[in-house]
């Protein structure tokens, strides 16, 4: 009996010690087995996918060994025009794969699920629990005359939340070197500018429109392109002058398009401009206040033109209908203001409350109203709590980072928090609503979660570096044990020498 137990422990110990050997071998054998048996057991449609299995296996092995390249690969998925059922896209698929492999790696290497130590974790954990509870209460018949959303729509909405939170935690926990933040930042600037470039070079327009399909040019695409190009061009003193000029050109071209060409689309220019103003206030308060004052004076001077521009076209109708929609959604949500009516459900209840005489389904076009309707005031509180903590961390870190990129990225995070709050007020750009921006919107909604998660990783690395410097500065060995006794001993010796003299 004892020999059997000893044998089992020996086998288990060998498996843990040689996991890097048998896991890739297991994947290769599984792929080989499917390729051999597939023609006999798989339907003809699935046989077409067999050639992709080796590529998939190689991708899995690569992501297991170098998970941070998976984060870098997320950026180009913005321009992958691949849509599955209900708008499932490559950005969602790769995010889900990274989270699954990350959990698998934690459980197989450390044998336990470790949670990163950060003040941003608790709001997200509670936020996730609130969403799960809202999903459960969403199965109750809140309105007997209307059905709730189909289960697929509810699960899709819940998936968008979980993938967003998971991506933030994954980036915050996995990034262990500033060089990865640099790769993410400059790769994103290059990819996102491909869409802006069609206004600079019109013949590029058809290609850009083909690459940037549904959900790929949302509010956060413009906001983060402005934030990152502005912060790096202005505050990253480590960049060479030609590099800063190129980033300045990207910034000016983007502002030209979203402020002048797309002025009627408030979700395009307003979050970006708010972010720049907040960055100026955080870096040079006097300049920020001066710029804000100039903006206010300019708006007052041109109030009529600005009002006509903002309220022209569809904006006036949009504002009036949104205000009316908010009031109706609030009325719909009153049966459960604590946890809401569940993911995507209120959209199916709106025909019971006619808007302008029409019994139709509609959504609120506001992240905050959506949160109240779907997950109640608890969900809204967690959202504000989470981004409030992020803003405080970024504000505290701005004076503690010293290299050019980290300082610029921290200021960008401050602007990113403010811009994300603004974008959420103008639409469900941060956590897409299933029946509005939808799952396709994850292509750009992931950007705030990705880059703000990267900021938390920078915060963690900075704190660890400071602790290491303090530890290195402390003496070790016998000298460290007598720091307080040495002055007293020196004083006694000097007095004895004086007496002898």
Highlighted features:
disordered C terminus; mainly alpha; 22 helices; globular; 501 residues
Description:
It is a single chain. The chain is mainly α. The chain has one domain (119-470). The chain is built from 22 helices and no strands. The chain has helices at residues 2-17, 19-41, 44-47, 53-65, 67-74, 90-109, 121-137, 151-174, 178-200, 205-211, 219-235, 241-261, 266-283, 285-301, 303-311, 315-333, 346-349, 367-397, 404-426, 442-473, 478-481, 485-500. Helix 4 crosses helix 5, helix 9 packs across helix 11 (219-235) and helix 11 (219-235) runs parallel beside helix 13 (266-283). The N and C termini lie far apart (83 Å).
Topology:
Blueprint: H1 2-17, H2 19-41, H3 44-47, H4 53-65, H5 67-74, H6 90-109, H7 121-137, H8 151-174, H9 178-200, H10 205-211, H11 219-235, H12 241-261, H13 266-283, H14 285-301, H15 303-311, H16 315-333, H17 346-349, H18 367-397, H19 404-426, H20 442-473, H21 478-481, H22 485-500
Strand content: under 5%
Instruction: Indicate the structural class.
Output: mainly alpha
Relative helix content = over 70%
Mind telling me the C-alpha Rg? 28 Å
* Low-pLDDT residue spans: 1-8, 34-42, 44-50, 309-315, 484-501
Q: Which series of helices and strands comes N to C?
A: HHHHHHHHHHHHHHHHHHHHHH
**Would you count the extended β strands for me?**
0
- The number of distinct structural domains comes to 1
Q: N- to C-terminal separation? A: 83 Å
């Amino acid at each position: 009996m004892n020999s059997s137990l000893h044998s089992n422990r020996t086998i288990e110990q060998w498996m843990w010690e040689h996991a890097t050997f048998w896991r890739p071998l297991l994947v290769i054998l599984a792929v080989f087995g499917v390729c051999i048996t597939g023609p006999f057991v798989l339907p003809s449609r699935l046989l077409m996918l067999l050639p992709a299995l080796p590529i998939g296996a190689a991708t899995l092995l690569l992501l297991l060994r170098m998970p941070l390249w998976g984060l870098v690969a997320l950026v180009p998925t913005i321009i992958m025009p691949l849509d599955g059922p209900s708008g499932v896209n490559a950005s969602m698929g790769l995010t889900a794969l990274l989270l699954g492999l990350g959990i698998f790696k934690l459980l197989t290497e450390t044998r336990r699920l470790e949670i990163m130590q950060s003040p941003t974790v608790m709001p997200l954990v509670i936020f996730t629990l609130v969403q799960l509870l809202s999903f459960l209460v969403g199965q109750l018949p809140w309105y007997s005359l209307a059905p709730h959303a189909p289960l697929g729509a509810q699960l899709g909405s819940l998936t968008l939340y979980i993938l967003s939170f998971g991506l933030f935690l994954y980036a915050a926990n996995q990034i262990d070197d500033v060089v990865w933040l640099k790769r993410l930042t400059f790769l994103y600037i290059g990819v996102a500018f491909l869409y802006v470039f069609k206004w600079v070079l019109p013949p590029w327009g058809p290609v850009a429109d083909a690459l940037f399909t549904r959900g790929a040019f949302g509010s956060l695409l413009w906001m983060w392109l402005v934030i990152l190009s502005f912060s790096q061009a202005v505050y990253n003193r480590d960049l060479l002058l030609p590099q800063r000029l190129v980033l300045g050109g990207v910034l000016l071209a983007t502002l030209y398009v979203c402020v002048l060409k797309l002025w009627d689309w408030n979700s395009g220019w307003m979050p970006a401009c708010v972010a720049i103003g907040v960055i100026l206030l955080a870096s040079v308060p006097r300049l920020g206040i001066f710029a804000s004052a100039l903006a206010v004076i300019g708006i007052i001077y041109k109030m009529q033109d600005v009002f006509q521009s903002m309220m022209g076209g569809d904006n006036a109708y949009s504002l009036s209908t949104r205000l009316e929609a908010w009031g109706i959604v609030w009325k719909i949500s009153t049966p459960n203001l604590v946890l809401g009516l569940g993911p995507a459900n209120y959209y199916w209840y709106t025909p019971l409350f006619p808007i302008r005489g029409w019994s139709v389904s509609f959504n609120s076009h506001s992240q905050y109203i959506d949160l109240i309707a779907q997950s109640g005031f608890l969900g809204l509180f967690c959202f504000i709590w989470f981004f409030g903590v992020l803003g405080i961390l970024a504000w505290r870190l701005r004076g503690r980072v010293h290299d050019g990129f980290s300082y610029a990225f921290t200021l960008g995070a401050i602007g990113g928090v403010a811009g994300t709050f603004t974008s959420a007020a103008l639409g469900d750009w941060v956590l897409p609503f299933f029946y509005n921006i939808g799952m396709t919107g994850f292509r750009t909604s992931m950007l705030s979660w990705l880059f703000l998660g990267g900021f938390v990783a920078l915060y963690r690395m900075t704190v660890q570096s400071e602790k290491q410097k303090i530890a290195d500065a402390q003496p070790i060995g016998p000298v460290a044990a007598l720091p307080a006794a040495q002055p007293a001993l020196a004083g006694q010796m000097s007095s004895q020498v004086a007496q002898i003299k």
